[in-house]
Each structure stands twice: as C-alpha cells, then as structure tokens.
C-alpha cells in the first residue's frame, strides 16, 4: 500500500513536469493585408475592379487548423464603401451602389455578418486576398478631400 | 486494530482521490479553447471622372424638300457619366471633306467614297436633341447640345438627336449618279464640366 502511494506521488510529479512541455497553448496571429488608399475606380473598365493583398497567418503549432473570415463590422457602411470626410463618415453621404466582395479560396460579399470563411488551412500560411469592387456611372465622383471608405476585418480562428 | 484496517482500506482510495484532485490542476493550463485574432484593412478610393457616349444610327438618302427638313429618329445618343457632363458637336471634316465646308453638306461620290464635284448646301445643318436645348448650327468648332449637372444612371441617359437642314432653291439638285450631299457629325462628351 505504501508503494501505491509512492507510485501515485511519482505520477503526479510526472504530470506536473512533463505535460506543460509536451503541449503548448494554441494561438493564432493574423496580419491583415496592407491598407489600400486612393483606389481610383473607373466605370469604363471591366468590372469588378480588383486590388490584391496578402493576409499572413501564424499559428503556434504547425498542425493547427485555422479558418479566415472577412467582415465589415461597421453598421454605417455595412458592406458598402461610404463617403468619408477624412475623419468620419458623412451623415447621409454617398455610398457605392455595389457591396465589396472579398475573395481568397472562396468569396464573400460584405458585410458577411454570418462570418463565412474565405480560406481555411493548416500551419503558417500567407493567403492571397482580392478586394473586388464593382463601379458604375451611377457612382458619383466625390469632390474635395472626400473619399469612399470601408474597413475590412479579417479574423483568424484555430479550429479543433 | 480496526483503525489500522480502516487505514489500509482507505489509503488507496485516498491516493486515487488525491490523483484525481491534482490532475485537473496540473492539466488545466493545457486546455485551451480555440484562439482567434483579428486585423483590419482600411480601403479608400474614389472614381475617376468618366464619360462614355454612344451614337447609334445614321441617315441615308434623306429626300430634302424646299424649306426646313427635320429628322428626329435617325440618330440616337446615349450618355453615361459619373460627374457633371456635356456633349458637343462639330464638323471635323472627316474623310477629307473640303476645307471651307464646315457645317455644310458637301457633294460626295459614293462610288469613289470621296468628296468631289464641289457643290455645297448653302445653309449649315443644325443639331439639338428632342429634349430641348438650343439648336446649334454646325461648324468646325464644338457647340454644346446637351448637358447634365450630375452623374447619369449606370445605363445612361438617352436622347433623340434632331437634325435640321434648310433647303432653298439655290441648293443645286445633284444629278450625277452616285453623288449625294454628305456630312459627318462628330459628337464629343466631356466630364466633368
């Protein structure tokens, strides 16, 4: 019986020392594509017009599976590039007539409230991301320092 | 004696309980829920000013009569613009139309596809749209026939072009086979204005 007690103590000590070194905490780091400034749209060119960027996914373990989503979380824009005066969205301002689409291995239309994935993968990866914006002659040219603006939020999640 | 026996029985159970009690404490740091991270990309842009005009139709074998002759169905204009715009017309003397005939229909050989013979109608053609606007007498210089203060729809704005040609007795009737009076009107769209 004394031996059983001793064995139990040894087992506990083994768990205490071995487990923390054999399993690391899972974490993911998302570096979104660089900002796109002064995108010059042209309704005369083939639509949609596109810009590309790279989203970098870094995970702790090479075997970690992950998903990537793109969303517009701002209720004011809600997927549509909206008139911006340099510091805030213009109340009642212009919006482009078509919502922005974000494409990687699959494509979503913003705002993508449901959080549909644009890519999935395993381990560290760079994901090529395409921003797609359709422009028409009904999309008015903004004057002065006003521009159309949207913020795209990229979320990476480690899956089981 | 009873106490010792109880200890003997309870000892393994205590040890097992201790293991079960400590195990979550040791293992807890390894139980990590699915991690997430977010990053934002800001996109800004503005359309470049753009205009696209489409001219459809032409007029052939227009049988003039003495007086004012008008055609509002032969030529149509579609304008697409994302800013304030205007459309102008002029006679650019296309196809080597003789200098000095700007705005006026000139004798043309349809067989040779050249201007020849030298006859020219006395009055310049005038152009406007059926939507209104001042009728502009064609010349070698651009003259505005229609404009818009803001952008059009995506499918554009449609206009019927009204061409008016005044004919009088001084305008000689062409009798040479294949000869007609001819003019090419150049439409130019500008945006912004």
What can you tell me about this protein's structure?
The complex is a heterodimer of chains A (160) and B (193). Chain A is mainly beta and 160 residues long. Chain A is 13% helix and 41% strand. Chain A has one domain: Immunoglobulin-like. Chain B has one helix at residues 2-27; strands spanning 36-47, 51-56, 67-71, 76-81, 85-90, 106-109, 114-120, 126-129, 132-137, 143-148, 157-167, 179-182, 186-190. In chain B, the strands form three sheets. In chain B, strands 2, 3, 4, 8, 9 and 11 form a six-stranded antiparallel sheet that branches. Chain B has a single domain, classed as Sandwich (Immunoglobulin-like). Mean pLDDT of chain B is 89; it is low at 24-33. The termini of chain B are far apart. Classes of the chains: A mainly beta (160), B mainly beta (193).
Descriptors:
heterodimer; A: 160 residues; mainly beta; Immunoglobulin-like; five-stranded antiparallel beta sheet; four-stranded antiparallel beta sheet; 1 helix; elongated; B: 193 residues; three-stranded antiparallel beta sheet; 13% helix
């Amino acid at each position: 019986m004394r031996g059983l007690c001793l064995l139990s103590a040894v087992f506990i000590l083994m768990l205490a020392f071995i487990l923390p070194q054999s399993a690391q905490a899972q974490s993911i780091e998302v570096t979104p594509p660089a900002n796109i400034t002064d995108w010059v749209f042209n309704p005369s060119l083939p639509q949609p017009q596109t810009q590309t960027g790279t989203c970098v996914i870094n995970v702790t373990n090479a075997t970690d599976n992950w998903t990537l989503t793109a969303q517009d979380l701002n209720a004011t824009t809600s997927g549509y590039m909206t008139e911006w005066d340099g510091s805030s969205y213009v109340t009642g301002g212009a919006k482009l007539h078509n919502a922005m689409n974000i494409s990687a291995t699959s494509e979503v239309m913003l705002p993508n409230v449901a959080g549909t994935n644009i890519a999935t993968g395993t381990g560290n990866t760079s994901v090529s991301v395409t921003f797609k914006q359709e422009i028409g002659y009904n999309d008015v040219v903004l004057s002065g320092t006003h521009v159309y603006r949207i913020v795209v939020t990229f979320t990476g999640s480690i899956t089981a | 004696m009873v106490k010792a026996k109880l200890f003997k029985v309870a000892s393994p159970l205590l040890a097992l309980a201790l293991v079960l009690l400590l195990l979550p404490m040791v293992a807890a740091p390894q139980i990590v829920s699915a991690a997430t991270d977010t990053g934002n990309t800001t996109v800004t842009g503005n359309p470049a000013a753009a205009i696209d005009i489409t001219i459809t139709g032409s007029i052939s074998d227009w049988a003039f009569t003495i007086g004012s002759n008008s055609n509002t169905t032969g030529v149509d204009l579609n304008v697409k613009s994302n800013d304030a715009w205007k459309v102008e017309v002029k006679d650019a003397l296309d196809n080597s139309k003789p200098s000095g005939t700007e705005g006026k229909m000139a004798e043309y050989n349809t067989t040779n596809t050249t201007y020849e013979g030298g006859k020219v109608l006395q009055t310049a053609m005038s152009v406007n749209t059926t939507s209104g606007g001042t009728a502009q007498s064609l010349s070698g210089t651009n003259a505005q026939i229609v404009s818009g203060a803001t952008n059009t729809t995506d499918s554009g704005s449609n206009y019927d072009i009204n061409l008016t040609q005044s004919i009088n007795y001084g305008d000689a009737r062409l009798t040479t086979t294949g000869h007609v009076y001819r003019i090419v009107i150049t439409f130019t769209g500008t945006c912004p204005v």
